[in-house]
Write a structure and sequence with these properties.
Mean pLDDT: 82
CATH class of the largest domain: Alpha Beta
Number of helices: 17
Low-confidence stretches: 44-50
Distance between the termini: 81 Å
CATH topology of the largest domain: Rossmann fold
Number of domains: 3
Strand content: 5-15%
Shape: elongated
Oligomer: single chain
Structural class: alpha/beta
Largest sheet: 6 strands, parallel
Strand order of the largest sheet: 3-2-6-7-1-8
Radius of gyration: 31 Å
């Protein structure tokens, strides 16, 4: 009896322990279930956020998703643009100014169309010759593309639209038929190795004397200001530098292949001294120049001697990334009292324009007359900071995928911009490997703006004058130009380069950069974007 009782107690104790164990297991399962449910809820919320994000973007990016939408956005003049076209009289030089996105190129093309029509209607004394030149091959192709959309007669058939390089080289070949042209500056060993001023001489020659067509008298006697140059040069150094420059010129004159910059320089002096006259076949009555601020003063000075009637120019000093310290007074072009400013940004959304204008305000010496307004809402500009380049590239590829798959952008409406071609070549491989997407550089010789299904790739130099519905801009941590120009000029050129890139976008702009950047032009942009997204 006693044994049965003890056994019962033991059994009850075991049952209790089992119950406790089961309760613990149940509690653990319930806790695990709650954790899983919480994780699922978090995932659902994230998915909802992502869906809301995509939905909001979709509502704000309905302007240029397809090629047709994009092309339609290019071909209609605003009232202000049409007013400026109407004011151009062709009796003297004329400048169309305006910051990025105001439609300078479109105004130039419509003014070209106006002149062609007047020419056809015999409003002039005899038929006049007309040319439009651009600084880059990519902008030449783009202007031909827009001219075709506008149905402008003549430009494509008669090759009216070309590059400044082609236009100038014809003149140089006529003046110096036996000289081959090169874009390198041939070094002279004696100057390179033995002159104590060394690199200073080459920098002075390449960045100041040749592009600004500075004479010995201006340099040594009049002490012309060397705006933007890194090192100050006193009278003694100027004299020594010029003596070395004359030795270099003498050596170059004996070469079969001579640098284009020098050939332009000496041809200008021949023309102004009456030693050479440009043949009538190489002249034009009316010359249109797009992105004029990126041509050197020497090049514009030579070009002006080829124009019988007038030049119609479009430019914006705040986008100059090739010619620091650009001024019109050394070009021989008189635009005083004959310039008009475009101040409505028809390209970009309010959000992009606001970021761009805040950034432009950080550029020392920015043109205060250019204060564009916008009228179209869009998504906020997005900043993506990453620890390294690989993470940035992965995020860029993911954004391309979102734009195509979720927002229904066609590939040709997306452009990836970076400071160097090597960076874009890596992205090109990633696009192909991960998304099976083709891409092409806008400045490739066989690139065609009308070709569909291809992501656009552009450096900060080759994107000038172009626009794209979606821009993904990779901005690495390095500052450029610091080894040649003074700190202020190098800073301004870096900011101009960044400003040019961020103003290529019509409605969606994403900036990708590194979190540990120390360059002030980059960090200022990051600060603006962080403020905008708060």
């Amino acid at each position: 009896m006693q044994l049965d009782y003890e056994q019962q107690i033991t059994k009850n104790k075991q049952n209790k322990e089992r119950i406790d164990e089961l309760r613990r297991e149940k509690n653990e399962v319930e806790q695990a279930n709650r954790k899983t449910q919480k994780e699922l809820q978090t995932q659902i919320e994230k998915l909802t956020d992502a869906e809301n994000y995509i939905d909001n973007l979709s509502r704000m990016t309905s302007y240029t998703r397809t090629r047709y939408d994009y092309e339609q956005s290019l071909v209609h003049l605003t009232r202000q643009q049409q007013s400026i076209v109407n004011q151009v009289k062709f009796s003297r030089d004329f400048l169309v100014k305006g910051s990025a996105g105001t439609g300078k190129s479109l105004v130039l093309l419509k003014t070209l169309e106006k002149l062609i029509q007047q020419n056809k209607q015999s409003l002039f004394d005899g038929e006049k010759s007309i040319q439009l030149i651009t600084f880059t091959h990519s902008l030449e192709k783009y202007n031909k593309y827009v001219a075709a959309l506008l149905n402008i007669e003549n430009p494509l058939e008669e090759e009216i639209i070309g590059t400044s390089e082609s236009y100038v080289n014809k003149i140089l070949k006529d003046a110096f038929p036996d000289i081959k042209l090169t874009y390198a500056l041939p070094k002279i060993p004696d100057i390179e190795n033995e002159n104590p001023l060394g690199q200073d001489i080459w920098t002075e020659l390449d960045k100041f004397i040749l592009p600004k067509c500075v004479s010995q008298k201006e340099y040594c006697e009049e002490k012309i200001r060397r705006t933007g140059m890194k090192k100050a040069q006193n009278a003694g150094k100027r004299k020594a530098i010029w003596e070395a420059v004359e030795i270099i010129f003498t050596e170059w004159d004996n070469l079969e292949e001579q640098p284009v910059q020098y050939v332009i320089y000496k041809l200008i002096h021949k023309i102004e001294n009456g030693e050479y006259t440009i043949s009538e076949e190489l002249k034009t009555d009316y010359l249109f120049v797009d992105e004029a601020q990126d041509l050197s003063a020497a090049t514009l000075r030579l070009i002006r001697t080829t124009v019988r009637e007038s030049m119609i120019l479009a430019g914006d000093n705040d986008q100059s990334v090739f010619q620091p310290g650009f001024t019109w007074n050394r070009t021989g072009i008189d635009i005083s009292g004959h310039s008009k400013i475009l101040n409505i940004n028809f390209r970009s959304t309010n959000q992009i324009n606001e970021v761009a204008e805040k950034y432009r305000a950080t550029i020392k010496g920015a043109d205060k007359e250019n204060m564009p307004e916008t009228f179209r809402l869009g998504p906020p500009v997005e900043l993506h900071e990453n620890r390294n380049q690989d993470d940035s590239f992965a995020q860029m590829i993911s954004t391309v995928k979102m734009c195509i798959n979720s927002l229904n952008y066609e590939p040709e409406n997306i452009c990836l911009i970076a400071p160097r071609k090597s960076l874009l070549e890596q992205l090109r491989e990633e696009l192909k490997t991960q998304l099976d997407l083709e891409s092409a550089f806008v400045n490739d010789t066989d690139f065609d703006f009308s070709k569909s299904g291809i992501i656009r790739l552009a450096t900060t130099q080759s994107c000038k004058g172009l626009d794209f519905p979606v821009v993904l801009f990779y901005l690495d941590h390095r500052a450029h130009f610091v080894d040649v120009f003074d700190e202020v000029t190098a800073d301004k050129m870096n900011r101009n380069m960044i400003y040019t890139a961020i103003t290529r976008s019509i409605e969606m702009l994403h900036v990708f950069t590194l979190s540990d950047s120390t360059a002030a032009p980059i960090n200022d942009l990051k600060a603006i974007l962080k403020t905008e997204t708060k």
